[in-house]
Design brief:
Elements: H1 2-14, H2 25-41, H3 45-59, H4 62-75, H5 78-91, H6 98-108, H7 160-181
Helix pairs in contact: 1-7, 2-3, 3-4, 4-5, 5-6
Length: about 200
């Protein structure tokens, strides 16, 4: 019986809370966000998209999807931009950037229908003047914040009552295991005081 209690206690202590993120995940996601924003402001949209993707993979926050859509749109990949805006709207249909995502989808228009397969037209060599460089569009990247969005609750393992209960269970289990491992026969070698 004692052995079973000790094994149960050891199992409880070894198993962490389900779904807990590794320490430093938010810090790493923030680093990717800052790097992505810096690339975005320099007009390096492919690198910015890669940084935002890494941040999304770590945190799962929908705002990264919107930022990735912006990068894809500005890089000229409208198909990927449409897909990313749709993913953002699926993840956060009432998010603070939902209206902007819908506006971007409307501006991009419907998916183009591929033309029927025909031989490509002949290539005509012409020399076109290079387009004048244009300033980067205004930054619409939303910041990553710690607080949950309105109406969303923090996960159970991020609330202090959860950890207080887990601590109580661990302390109570430890005391119970200690009490179960002690028996009245352990004091056979204890000095006995004769009260006669």
């Amino acid at each position: 019986m004692r052995r079973a209690m000790l094994l149960l206690l050891a199992a409880l202590l070894a198993v962490g809370p389900a779904g807990a993120q590794p320490v430093g995940t938010d810090a790493q996601a923030r680093t990717h966000f800052k790097n992505g924003r810096a690339h975005y402001q320099r007009g390096q949209y492919a690198q910015a998209l890669a940084e935002f993707q890494a941040g999304f993979d770590l945190s799962g926050r929908p705002v990264f999807l919107f930022n990735m859509g912006e990068c894809a749109r500005l890089a000229g990949d409208t198909g990927q931009a449409r897909a990313l805006y749709r993913r953002y709207l699926e993840a956060a249909p009432a998010g603070e950037l939902a209206a902007s995502a819908r506006a971007r989808l409307e501006a991009l228009g419907p998916e183009p229908i591929p033309p029927p397969t025909a031989p490509p037209p002949p290539i005509i060599e012409t020399q076109l003047p290079a387009p004048a460089p244009q300033p980067p569009p205004p930054v619409l990247i939303a910041p990553v914040v710690d607080r949950p969005a309105t109406g969303q609750r923090r996960p159970l393992y991020r609330r202090w009552p959860f950890w207080a209960i887990v601590g109580g269970i661990v302390v109570g289990g430890s005391l119970a295991a200690y009490a179960l491992t002690r028996s009245g026969d352990d004091c056979a070698s204890c000095p006995v005081v004769d009260l006669r």
